[in-house]
Amino acid sequence: MEPLALYGYIILFAPLVATALITCFTLKHKAVSSWIAIGGMLVAFGANVLAAMQVFGADASFEPVHEIEWLSVGHVMIPFGVQMDALSVMMSLIVTGVGLCIFVFSTGYMKGEDGWSRYFACLSLFSFSMLGIVLSTNLIQTFIFWELVGVSSYALIGYYFHKDSAVDAGKKAFLTNRIGDFGMTWGIILLFYTLVDTLGWERASFSYEKLKLLYHASDPLIVQVMADHSGTLALATLLIFTGAVAKSAQVPLHVWLPDAMEGPTPVSALMHAATMVAAGVFLVCRLFFMFAPYEIALGVVAWMGGITALLAAGVAFVQHDIKKVLAYSTLSQLGYMVLALGMGAPAAAMFHLTTHAFFKALLFLGSGSVIYGCHHEQDMRKMGGLRKTMPVTFWTFMIGTAALAGIAPFSGFWSKDAILSAASVGHVPGAPILYGMGVLVALMTAAYMGRCVILTFFGEYRGHAKPHESPVSMTGPLVVLATASVFAGVLSIPKGISEHGGWLEHALVGATTAPVWFPGMHEEVFLPSVAIVGTVAALFGLFLAYMFYAKKAWSIDSFVAAVKPLHTLLEKKYYFDEAYLWLVANVQQTIAETCGFIEVHVLRRIVDAVAGTTRWFGGQVRLLLDGHLHRYVTLALFGAVVIIAAVLVGN
Amino acid sequence: MDMLLSSPTLLASALASIGGEITTSHYIVLSALIFGVGLFGVITRKNAVVILMSLELMLNGANLAFVAFSRHHGNLQGQVFVFFIIAVAAAEAAVALAIIIAMNRVKGSVNLDDATELKG
Fold first, then answer.
1. What pLDDT does A201 receive?
2. How far is residue A270 from each of residues A88, A156, A360, A426, measured CA to CA in Å?
3. Chain segment A431-479, per-residue pLDDT in tens
4. Which candidate in A617, A624, A629, A633 is best for mutational testing of the B interface (most B CBs within 10 A)?
5. Of the N and C termini of chain A, which has fewer Cβ atoms inside 10 Å?
6. How many domains does chain B have?
């Protein structure tokens, strides 16, 4: 095995080993459990750094895919392995790096909580699942880990299992994700079936590399076949995308993410900001060659992202829970990434995913520190003035906010600019509208983050507890993540500004490349007009927040009164939950009752009739067996005679 | 008479005059007869010991057919079967006799008409 593949397996299995050790041996020993979890993550991170040095190093001669035959059924071979190309190494570096910070942070935040070992075991299991998705070489492996992520996130959201709301949130997340997974299952089946049907068992495959070869094939036969079945293949692609829609919380399957904030704050930071929700975006990047040929697929992706970004940003304004603000902000930023994918710029999406992972994890951990410091108070109306009592948290939170709002030179500015410039030159139907929406979202992001910061850190303290700064185990990771949030932009400063710019895009070319004939592939360039528009939007957003909340020059109450219907709509989160409730209570219930009626009155009758006939016949036959062995033997003899006679006659 | 018996040729001709040469079909007929006698015994007799003896007759009827065919075809498979059947029959006899003794202790009889509890 090559060292690179070995690194891959170490990255993948180190967290699993940690989970196993904790569950089997150290459930009773809190400190040991957390050190095992952190140790596992440290090993994975170390191996990841080594792998990154090889993958991104000057010597580019490495074999990215290592597969073993795992399951073999008939002609179908399902492999298991690790794919260590630029995309997956980049992504796993985020998972292990940010994960490591959050593991350390958790040791401070979870102090005094019950089920400490269970928490770290679940956290490690989650990391394993997530890394499984990232390093997977094929659709089936991805799907399995996809489900594992669902399970472990269920366990972590419902961590406070004595609280009904937490349990419900866990269930909601799981069920919503199941809907997406259902679509994804059909997508995988349809894709494989179509390939087998048209190209035969030999060429059809689940492996990404082999699929990519099919989509990029120059063999005229394959090209012809792929063109003839473009409708089916586009449908399969979109079905697989439904899985990504649910995991990455895009409208209309976004409802689980805000509720998932019921879990402990570090969990929110790890899963619902930095990694799990990024899985959908990552999957689309990985499968970008499948989306790229179909304008309809890209259009759906782009519009879904744009709409999610806009809707979620709106709701963020009316939330009072600091974590909920960040949750809707996450939704909105994920919408941004999906928008970039639809615009044919997977590199920009990955860039934003990277920077967002840093600054959103930072903001979540910052909010965790605030919540911890305020004695588990999450309502921003009962905070305020915390910049004096929590200086480290305040300054790191400010950095995160500046990055999220897209203020130069923080990392968020560069990645947001990359997405906006991709949108400004995009090819999908309605691209100019989407660009406009993107700019509007930039403004709204700055405004609601301004509101959040002002309410939390400025003004006078409005709560009753005595806020205090958090311990080093919590502020340490904050500082690390803040540093990353400032500098992560250098990964891909556009070529127009720096000679060595566009590094990330360049590195990802091999992994996310689209077919050469794809017209929408967008080369990342620096467009000064876009940068100016984005910056002005962000500054205007901050200005609005300042005028409304800090200076109070304009009254927020009279503004709300003026737009009452809109405000209600936002407060009710566009009635999505109500709509789903209605759907379940009426439509689904009707279907279920109809099925129940058919089962009781039709199917069960048939089954009962069959059973009754059998029972009656048996009742008659049993009279023959009266306990006299002679009769049994005689009957057997007659039977034998009949059979022999039948055979003889037959011959 | 002495002369007659001491001469193998004459003995052979005497046998031939009774029914001709003894062929495989003779053995098969004998085997069927033994099997039939055994079966008749199993069906008609009430005494468990007699039934067991009849069963052994049936088995040996089958054995005879196996051996006859084995010789006819010139291979040993049939004889191997027979060894197995003899072994199984011995085991069966041991078990069956034990059951019959137990039955006699419980019921004071080895008549099968007294053991009809196991109804369908």
1. 87
2. 18, 11, 9, 32
3. 899 999 999 999 999 999 999 999 999 888 888 878 888 888 889 999 9
4. A629
5. C
6. 1
